[in-house]
Design a protein that fits this description.
The protein is of the alpha/beta class. The chain folds into 2 domains: 1-49, no CATH class; 53-231, Vaccinia Virus protein VP39 (Rossmann fold), CATH 3.40.50. It is built from 8 helices and 7 strands. The protein has helices spanning 2-16, 18-24, 36-48, 55-68, 84-92, 128-134, 172-182, 203-212; strands spanning 74-78, 98-102, 141-145, 162-167, 186-194, 221-222, 228-231. The protein has a 7-stranded mixed β-sheet with strand order 3-2-1-4-5-7-6, with helices on both faces. The radius of gyration is 17 Å and the shape is globular. The termini are far apart.
Length: 235
């Protein structure tokens, strides 16, 4: 109850005094100050209790996905949890289909040598029923429950081409599986954005990217906070 009241109060501040809110966050000069659509969405996520990432990370996701919107290709997210970041993608994707991949029952098996303090079954409150209800008002959203990449078998053949992919899976093997699946299916100029790359408590994500990118020509772009961006080579 106290958390809900706090969230409602913060959301109200964002809606009524956005410049004050950003000043209190030390972000008065951030580009999001000139983006009222994002701030309205952020207030909604805060009120709903679904604002899991850092504020700057949510803005990065919003901005990069908007850049991809309108180009041919589908959107995808691997690691949905309770649907907060998926809702950002729903707001920007336009008519593109959005494919959501998650166990919707918590984390798969975890390797303590690569995955920090995570445990199998963590985040089990991100159920399929909850996310479907949370995104009910959006069209073109496709759910793929189960362990990835086996859950991707429902996509085809033929498999769609992706214009934008968001990874937020925390674990080494899950990140590597996501890169192996989505990289060859990214459109030229398509973008893959991953969470946790710069987080030292989640070492498996950076390790997976390092191994996967050894023979690739693209250069990773590390964003502020923990995110990393990969843009597929091509025109």
């Amino acid at each position: 109850m106290l958390r809900s009241l706090r969230n409602r109060g913060i959301a109200r501040l964002i809606e009524t005094r956005p410049r004050l809110f950003l000043r209190l966050k030390g972000l008065a000069a951030h580009p999001m100050a000139a983006d009222p659509a994002f701030l309205r969405l952020h207030a909604r996520l805060v009120r709903d209790g679904e604002a899991m990432q850092l504020l700057s990370e949510r803005y990065n996701l919003w901005s990069v996905a908007r850049r991809a919107a309108g180009h041919p290709g589908a959107f995808a997210e691997l690691g949905v949890y309770r649907g907060g970041s998926a809702r950002i993608l729903c707001e920007v994707k336009g008519d593109a289909p959005l494919h959501l991949f998650d166990t919707f029952a918590g984390m798969p098996a975890v390797n303590p040598a690569t995955d920090g303090a995570f445990r199998a079954g963590d985040f089990a409150d991100g159920t399929l029923e909850h996310v479907q209800a949370y995104l009910r008002g959006y069209s073109g959203v496709h759910f793929h429950p189960g362990f990835f990449p086996a859950s991707a078998a429902r996509l085809g053949p033929p498999s769609p081409v992706f214009q934008f992919v968001h990874l937020d899976v925390d674990l080494y093997q899950s990140t590597l599986d996501g890169l192996r699946f989505f990289y060859p299916r990214l459109a030229p100029g398509g973008i893959l954005l991953s969470h946790d790359y710069g987080d030292p408590t989640v070492p498996g994500v950076r390790r997976a990217f390092g191994e996967f990118m050894r023979d690739k020509t693209e250069k990773l772009v590390q964003l502020d906070a923990t995110q990393v961006l990969l843009e597929k080579a091509g025109s």
